[in-house]
Write a structure and sequence with these properties.
The complex is a heterodimer. Chain A is α/β, with parallel strands linked by helices. Chain A has two domains: 282 residues, Alpha-Beta Barrel (TIM Barrel); 122 residues, no CATH class. Chain A is built from 16 helices and 17 strands. Chain A has a ten-stranded mixed beta sheet. Chain A has a three-stranded antiparallel beta sheet with strand order 1-2-3. The longest helix of chain A is centred in the C-terminal third of the chain and has 26 residues. Chain B is of the alpha/beta class. Chain B has a domain of 235 residues: TIM Barrel. In chain B, 42% of the residues lie in helices and 16% in strands. Chain B has 15 helices and 17 strands. Chain B has a five-stranded parallel beta sheet with strand order 4-15-14-13-12. In chain B, strands 5-6-10-11 form a four-stranded parallel beta sheet. In chain B, strands 1-2-3 form a three-stranded antiparallel beta sheet. In chain B, a hairpin with a 4-residue loop joins strand 2 and strand 3. The model of chain B has no long low-confidence stretch (mean pLDDT 95). Classes of the chains: A alpha/beta, B alpha/beta. Chains A and B meet through helix 1, helix 3, helix 13 and helix 14 of A and helix 1, helix 2, helix 11, helix 12 and helix 13 of B. The complex binds zinc ion (2 copies).
């Protein structure tokens, strides 16, 4: 596979192509992957996903939930995309989702803890690459000790850089030796973002393997979604600048994490190409509908996310987002989705995720259009403005139960001030 | 009272040996081919499946639960939505139950009087009375093509004759009240429920009484509640013997493949059951021989689909090994197995309809039973029930 990119003043347009498994597929960047669990886009069967997206997308596959697929995928021998029923999509494997709210646990030399459904497993770089040979993803993010908060102590940051470097050496070595992975692209994971000098070191070390890497991914910027969501944008921009200054422009740049849309457009401006798709799923699991207004000619009338559990939607017969072309909005009302949420029916998550993935995808489609037209700065402002209209998301667990009355009231009052009823 | 615009039933072919028949039931929202299995979508949704998926699975009519829908979203919302069809985005036919069964089975404190079923709301603990009139009012708001009368529910294994008699007769009185309260006879058909539990005289009394009413179809209730199979089938066959030949007969709460085959042979046209979707939630996939519990370790590297002859999207795309990995972990597992299980039920019914039409139904029943009981050890109720309609499965 190959990554080609054209840089522009504000953001850049790229293309992932020449995948051995699907030679006619190309993915335009900037883009967001579809976050998967155990190989499936969460809540959506292959049959439903095919109704939502007609073209191949990038699947984001954290090992945390794919670990359990080892025996079956190995027996079948055709890799994880085929085994998971989504052979037409492009796969990107990663060790873990840095936005997952998981325990951190102790570390051992040369091993990173993986929190699978059957408990903690200590994984070495060798073991990780052995699993990759079975899963045969199109893109592999090297194993890293990357789930670290930005404000971690210097010792922890130092260790994570050290450990990640050592493991990268092994990953690259195994990657070069592997026949099964000759057509996959390897991505080096940089860490140490909590200390810019350490970050520089991590980048420089990673680039020693440049000829074997198609790109880099940034870790060490958080260890759970609560914290990622509250990272000050200024601090992130310093990190982005450090990365941009050191990483050669032809390399693919991946930003993992559950970020608000304002951070995403800022990151796109700084030249980040791929995002992991955590935000729409988090919204879905919290019972929120994304409603990003991606048309800069349309006035911003409302917040960009609605809490569909709020009682006031119980008899609103409009779609989640007026004019949205998704399967959910073309057929179903807010009242129905509210009903499914309060009765805890599984279809609530299916319908919300269909819409949220569609709406989030629009953000990237429009971002690419504006980069091409050299009007990205206008688009960025348009998105940031919508983000200023809302309180931060409730941020505890992903499968959060219905909010308390008090929280609902608070949210309601705030939202009403901002004229959330929408058009 | 009953209007032909709400339901027209045409028997298109009858088996010359058994009592099985196949036909077309024309309902306001869809023409349903019988015998039919109706999957249960309790709260206005079918276990995580999109309405489009249900259409692709050839579901022609599904069931909603009045008790649940009356609570949430409630009549006001349903009326404002223009009925359950619009609310859930389902264009084909719907049937709603009366709410009585749910209430008695879900709420231990329900008290039944001549007026109706009195119970405490599990939502705010207030006292609520579900009368026949109220049940019909809610069902009129939901707007299903077929609605059920409120009946006096007694547990199937209950023994007290006086109470069974009271319930049977009260059910008939409540039928009159339901029919009187019905506001939409032109696009909704009320089905009376034949009661009497396992007592043949009471069953005859109930059916005879209900058949004097102007209605479009009948249900046989009070079965499939834990009674012995030897007690079950004679009541079914008594029901189909008694009820009008030209009206659809609905056997409530039956949906396991073997029971479906037997009861189609005994002349039943409609079935419903939560079993196929409920069992999917526990990781069990239906196959002719019974079910596969996909959680079992033996499927870890089994690269076969659930059923190689099944045409459902799950079987075309996924292996047992993959399903084994995601069962009880990911929501998609539940959706995937539900798709297969509903497909299994739909396929079974279609196969029976085709065989009835082709005059090969008795042979089909024999082949089916041989596949299920490949050791030839048939339960006696199966031998006897089939013998009663002219099929001797012990001879080839
Ligand atoms: Zn939508
Ligand atoms: Zn199947």
């Amino acid at each position: 596979m190959r990554f080609t990119v054209e840089n522009s003043e504000s953001g850049r347009l790229g293309c992932l192509r020449d995948f051995e498994r699907s030679p006619y597929t190309s993915l335009e960047t900037p883009t967001s992957a579809l976050l998967a669990q155990a190989g499936s886009v969460v809540h959506l069967t292959a049959d439903v996903l095919a109704r939502v997206f007609k073209t191949p997308h990038l699947l984001w596959l954290p090992l945390t939930s794919c670990y359990q697929l080892e025996a079956g995928t190995k027996a079948q021998g055709d890799g994880i995309a085929k085994f998971s029923g989504l052979p037409q999509h492009i796969t990107c494997a990663t060790f873990q989702n840095i936005s997952d709210n998981l325990p951190t646990g102790h570390f051992e030399l040369d091993k990173v803890p993986l929190w699978t459904k059957n408990g903690k497993k200590m994984i070495t770089a060798e073991r990780y690459m052995e699993l990759m040979e079975i899963f045969k993803p199109d893109i592999i993010l090297a194993i890293a000790d990357g789930r670290i908060a930005l404000d971690e102590g210097p010792k922890r940051i130092f260790k994570s850089v050290e450990r990640t470097q050592k493991m990268l050496d092994i990953c690259v070595e195994k990657y070069k030796e592997s026949k099964a992975l000759h057509s996959s692209g390897l991505v080096g994971v940089i860490v140490g973002a909590g200390d810019l000098r350490r970050l520089e070191k991590s980048i420089k070390y990673t680039l020693k393997h440049k000829e074997n890497l198609i790109g880099i991914s940034l870790n060490g910027i958080g260890d759970c979604s609560d914290q990622i969501l509250t990272t000050p944008v200024k601090r992130l921009e310093d990190i982005f600048r450090t990365v941009a200054a050191l990483v050669p422009p032809e390399m693919l740049k991946i930003l993992e994490g559950c970020w608000y849309p304002n951070v995403i457009v800022t990151a796109i401006e700084h030249g980040w190409d791929v995002f992991d798709g955590s935000l729409p799923l988090k919204m879905t699991n919290m019972g929120y509908a994304l409603r990003l207004n991606c048309d800069i000619n349309k006035p911003i009338l409302s917040v960009y996310a609605l809490d569909m559990k709020l009682k006031r939607y119980n008899n609103t017969f409009t779609p989640l987002l007026k004019g949205c072309e998704c399967l959910t909005c073309k057929k179903h009302s807010r009242a129905y989705i509210h009903h499914l949420l309060v009765t805890k029916e599984m279809l609530a998550s299916v319908l919300l995720n269909i819409h949220n993935l569609h709406n989030f995808d629009q953000l990237f489609i429009k971002a690419r259009e504006h980069i091409a037209l050299k009007t990205f700065h206008l688009f960025k402002q348009h998105i940031i403005q919508q983000c200023l209209m809302i309180e931060p998301l409730e941020t505890s667990t992903t499968n959060q139960p219905v909010q308390s009355q008090q929280q609902q009231k608070k949210f309601c009052a705030k939202s009403l001030n901002n004229n959330t009823e929408g058009s | 009272m009953a209007s032909a615009s709400a339901l027209q039933f045409n028997v298109e072919a009858e088996c010359s040996t058994t009592k099985a028949r196949t036909g077309l039931m024309k309902l306001p929202h869809y023409n349903v081919r019988t015998p039919v299995f109706m999957p249960v979508g309790t709260q206005g949704t079918m276990k995580g499946l999109l309405p489009e998926q249900l259409e692709d699975l050839d579901c022609e009519i599904i069931l909603g639960n009045t008790y649940h829908l009356g609570n949430r979203p409630g009549i006001n919302v349903l009326q404002k939505a223009g009925g359950l069809h619009n609310f859930m985005g389902w264009k084909r036919a719907l049937l709603t139950d009366s709410g009585g069964f749910q209430m008695v089975s879900l709420l231990k404190l329900a008290e039944i009087t001549e007026e109706g079923v009195k119970f405490r709301s599990p939502y705010d603990n207030s006292e609520i009375m579900l009368t026949p009139e109220k049940s019909i009012e809610i069902q009129n708001s939901i707007g299903a093509d077929i609605i059920m009368q409120l009946d006096d529910v007694v547990r199937t294994t209950f023994q007290d004759y006086d109470r069974i008699k009271e319930a049977t007769e009260r059910t008939s009185r409540w039928l009159d009240r339901c029919l009187k309260a019905h506001k939409r006879p032109f696009d909704q058909s009320i089905f009376p429920i034949v009661q009497g539990l396992l007592n043949k005289d009471l069953r005859i009394q109930s059916a005879t009484e209900h058949m004097t009413k102007q209605v479009n179809g009948f249900a046989i209730g009070g079965l499939s509640g834990g009674e012995a199979k030897d007690d079950f089938w004679p009541i079914v066959t008594l029901g189909t013997d008694l009820l009008h030949r030209d009206k659809p007969r609905y056997l409530m709460g039956v949906g396991v493949a073997i029971d479906l085959v037997i009861c189609v042979a005994l002349g039943v046209d409609m079935f419903d059951c939560v079993f196929p979707t409920r069992t999917a939630r526990f990781g069990c996939a239906l196959v002719t021989r019974g079910q596969l519990n996909l959680k079992q370790k033996q499927y870890e590297t089994d690269l076969n689909p659930i059923d190689k002859d099944c045409n459902c999207s799950t079987c075309k795309t996924y292996t047992r090994a993959y399903l084994h990995c995601v069962v009880s972990v990911e929501t998609v597992a539940c959706h995937l197995i539900s798709v297969h299980n509903i497909s299994f039920q739909m396929h079974l019914m279609k196969t029976m309809r085709d065989n009835i039409k082709n005059g090969t139904f008795p042979q089909y029943v024999k082949t089916f039973m041989k596949e299920v009981y490949n050791d030839g050890k048939y339960p006696t109720w199966i031998i006897k029930s089939l013998l009663s309609v002219g099929i001797n499965i012990l001879e080839n």
